[in-house]
Every structure is written in C-alpha cells, then in structure tokens.
Design a protein that fits this description.
heterodimer; A: alpha+beta; two-stranded antiparallel sheet; 7 helices; B: mainly alpha; 6 strands; 54% helix
Chain lengths: 254, 272
C-alpha cells in the first residue's frame, strides 16, 4: 500500500509536469463562441464535432506533435480563416458547452438569434513597419477582406510626410468590433502577413480601477462595485504630507 | 472452413465491430456520411442520440467543468448500456487499441516470447490507482488528465482526423505489450478499461462455464487477456462474474469441449 501510494505520487508528478506543459499554448486561436481558455480546456471533450461541422475546413484538432493541447480544436487564419457563417454550424454541435451558444447570440425582437459578429476569436494586429500601406503604397486588401468592413478595420487618412503631397491610407483595427476571424490575415499581400490575429487576452491590456474617462458619463459605472478601501499604507503615508515634507530626517535616512 | 469460421467467430465479429465503428466515424468526417459523428470521447448517433465517454465526463467534473446537457445524457446512455448489458465489452468490441495489443499478444505467442523473455513485473491493480490518479490530477490541473494523454483517443482521433505524431504513442504500447508485460496496457495500466471493470460488476451478459465438459486443456487461459478471471475453470460451473472480463469470447471459441458459452448472469445464486 505504501509503495503504491509512493509510486502513484511519483507518477502523478511526472504526469502533472507533462499536463502543465501540454496545456500551455497561449497563441492558440479557438473556434467562435469558445469559453476563456482555462474553462475551454476544462470543458472541451475533444470530440471534433465542431471540426466536422465547419464547411470550410477551417478548424483542426490538435494532433500529437502540433505542440497544442492534444485533441482540442484550433485554426490558423493564414491557412484557412473563419468565414463567419451566419448559422455558426460549429457552435450548436458542441455537446459540453465549451463553445457557448449564448456568447454568440443576440436578442432580436424578443428572439434569440445566432450572431457571429459577437464572436471573439482573437484580435487583428498590424505590423506597421512591414505593412505597405504605411509606406504610402495603396493597398486595402485587409480592409476589403474584412467581413465588418469599415467597422472592424477602418482606413485612416494621413499626410504622407515623405512626399509632402500624397496621402497615406492606412488600416486601423477597432478592438471592440474585430472578431478575429482572420480574413484580413488571409488576404494580406506581404510574404508573411503584416496583419495577423492573436488571442485577445495576449494583446489586450487591462485598465484596472485607477483610471476613468472623466468626460464619459458611462465610464463611471465601471467603478460601481469597486471597494473604496484601497488605501496603501507605507512608512511615509502614516505621516501627514507637511510633516515629512518639512522634516529633513527622511531626506538623510539612507 | 466451417471449422475455421467457428473457431474464430467472435474474433471476426469483433474485428468487424471495431473496424466498422472506425469506418463510420471516419466517413462522417471525410464524406459527410452522418451515422456516427464525433469521436469515441463524444459523438452523435443518427444525428440525434448523444453518446459520451463517462470516464472522460468524470474527469471533467473533477477538473471543475460545468457541462452541457448533451454530454451528460450521452455519458449516462453509454454508462447504463455497459453497466447493465455489455460489461466491459467496450475494450474488446469498440476500442481501436485492442487491435494493437491483440497483435502484440499474438506475436508474443508466435515468437514464444512468453517463454523466453525476462519477466517484468507489473500488478494488475495499477490501473485502479491510475483511475484515482487521473481524477486527482484533473482537479489539480483543471484539465481532464487522462484524456490529454490517452493513447486510445490519439489512435482513434488519428484515424478520423489525421495522425500527426500519434503513431509513436501507439507504437509505444505495441512495444510495451510485446517486450515488457503481457497484456501490459489493457490488463494493467489502462484506466478506461479499469473504469468499465468497476461499472460492469452487475452486467447481464456473461461467459458461463460448464465444468463437467471441461477437459482441463487450458486453451482458454492461454488466450484470455485477463487470465485471473478464469480461476473457476475445471473447478466448478458458473458465471465468469469478474468485471475485468471483456466479453471478447476468445475462451468460448477456442474451447473444444463446449465447456464455455455466453449467457445471462445468474443473479440469484452467486455460486451458480
């Protein structure tokens, strides 16, 4: 018995080590409606029904050797992007709810309808150094490929300082609209795509509670549930400001 | 010829079942022939009936997942089928790894490796420890622990969706069964088989022994992948009642004396 427990512990540690390595794939792109990665890995049973449902063969199941969590669905937009089917066939077939129908549905006239534009598969990022539009060459391949043209990718006019008399027409991504379908990455004309999709949690910053837009009445609402007891106590903050500013002890402390 | 058919009737049926099931999954993905879509982890029969792996669902619960209704109903259907009727039949009639380990086992017999190899000892209870371990690790890592390493899924998904490097895992099992431990994977390590061994303690379909016909030739013990369950051979009539029996029927077909047959479990008198 003691030997069995001991050997189990040994095996368990090796096994855990492998799992922790295997489940870490921060750059993986999931199908539409996927739960946040940690919940997705909990819930995905690796059945491949989403892969079979996809009419464009966008999705694949991670194979041994792909260095992605084994058996889970993902896509590589430069190869095959998500074509944003309006009936989202990959999501309702998910038996476990790892692909959540709720997150890609909106209510229209009191009825729940699937809405692929709500999906958050990733976010398009532009490498301005290798994007030829930033050189002044007219290219709107990504803009035209975008299924939310003019909303997820806009074209911004800028003065071309180099020539002094032309405009730059550069793409600009709105992170609150972009779904991460990857049609832009697929369409990009440079050798390696200069606009590409990364998982949102990798590229997005997080504001925290310290900053609010004073000019935006709605932004205050963010702070509604925040506890106000966030005072930081340090040696210095015990004193009133005048006290420590007027004394030279603190200056010569060290 | 008829004798050959009779001697291998269950073996051939099992291969038909194993390959047929694989072919259905494969053609659903490759040709859109939607009889059985998905994989052994979770699938949809006739685009209607969900079927799921109950052991995978248990691990997912241990990992802290809140699951959809489809997968729970599917797991319940599969669980009830094996627990009440099939016993551990998944292992010998469905699981694709069975063909790999059977091949290894057959080579062991042909090459007389059983007689010549150095013995590597491994207990048959290890698999039950692995069940416990997979549940504990699932809750520690928030991932279904066995599912992410399961060579069964690797082989099965490999055949349906593309193999990748999954062949190495399958080859490892083949080599392990051939050179290390007889029936090493299925009979000693695999937690899925162990899970079905536990759940099929009361299943209806059983192999029955008719002791007066037995001539003690021991051919049944030679072919049985779980030899320990045949302890009553030649001693007394009755059910092979252990959950570790996979209902593969090999013992029945190799028996020349009609001393073994499939039948219904005798629930009333345990001693038959």
């Amino acid at each position: 018995m003691a030997q069995s427990v001991g050997l189990s512990a040994l095996g368990g540690m090796v096994w855990t080590g492998y799992i922790e390595e295997a489940k870490s794939a921060p750059l993986i792109l999931r199908p539409p409606g996927a739960k946040p990665e940690i919940d997705f890995l909990r819930m995905c049973i690796k059945c491949g029904q989403c892969v079979e449902a996809c009419p464009f063969d966008t999705l694949s199941l991670a194979k041994p050797g792909d260095n992605k969590p084994m058996g889970t669905p993902y896509f590589i937009p430069r190869d095959v992007p998500c074509y944003m089917c309006t009936d989202i066939p990959c999501v309702p077939v998910c038996p476990t709810g790892a692909l959540d129908e709720q997150s890609v549905s909106s209510v229209v006239e009191g009825q729940k309808v699937l809405d692929i534009n709500k999906s958050e598969m990733g976010l398009a990022i532009i490498d301005e150094e290798s994007c030829i539009a930033f050189w002044g060459i007219q290219c709107d391949a990504c803009y035209r490929a975008c299924p939310l043209m003019g909303k997820a990718i806009k074209v911004e006019y800028r003065r071309n300082e180099r020539t002094g008399k032309h405009a730059l027409l550069v793409p600009k991504v709105s992170s609150d609209v972009c779904t991460g379908c990857g049609l832009c990455e697929h369409a990009c004309v440079t050798k390696k795509a200069s606009i590409f999709i990364l998982p949102r949690e990798v590229v997005k910053g997080e504001l925290g509670d310290y900053y609010i837009k004073g000019w935006d009445a709605n932004d205050e609402k963010r702070l509604k549930d925040v506890s106000t007891d966030v005072t930081t106590q340090t040696n210095r903050s015990k004193l009133a400001p005048q006290d420590y500013l007027n004394s030279d002890e603190v200056l010569f402390d060290d | 010829m008829t004798n050959f058919l009779k001697k291998y009737r269950f073996l051939m049926l099992r291969r038909v079942s194993q390959i047929g099931i694989l072919a259905l999954y494969f053609s659903a993905n490759a040709y859109g022939f939607k009889v059985l879509t998905g994989t052994l982890s979770s699938s949809l029969l006739f685009s209607m009936i969900p079927l799921s792996d109950p052991f995978a669902v248990m691990q997912m619960f241990a990992a802290g997942a809140v699951l959809g209704a489809d997968v729970l109903i599917g797991a319940l259907i599969v669980f009830l089928f094996y627990a009440s009727i099939g016993g551990r039949a998944f292992c010998s009639w469905v699981c694709p790894i069975n063909m790999v380990t059977d091949l290894a086992n057959w080579l062991r017999r042909v090459l007389l490796l059983d007689k010549t190899e150095k013995k590597v000892w491994l207990g048959r209870r290890v698999r039950y420890w692995i069940i416990v371990l997979s549940l504990i690790l699932s809750s520690l890592t928030s991932v279904a622990a066995f599912e992410i390493v399961s060579p069964i899924s690797m082989l099965h998904r490999g055949i349906v969706f593309g193999m990748g490097m999954g062949g190495t895992a399958v080859l490892s099992i083949f080599l392990f069964d051939l050179f290390a431990v007889k029936n090493g994977w299925c009979g000693h390590l695999c937690p899925l088989g162990a899970f079905y061994s536990i759940t099929s303690k009361l299943s209806i379909l059983r192999v029955k022994h008719n002791q007066p016909n037995c001539t003690l030739c021991m051919k049944c013990k030679d072919v049985c992948p779980e030899m320990q369950i045949l302890s009553l051979i030649g001693k007394k009539s009755g059910d092979i009642s252990s959950g570790e029996c996979t209902n593969c029927g090999r013992c029945i077909e190799v028996c020349d004396d009609d001393a073994l047959s499939f039948g219904i479990r005798n629930y009333i008198n345990k001693n038959g």
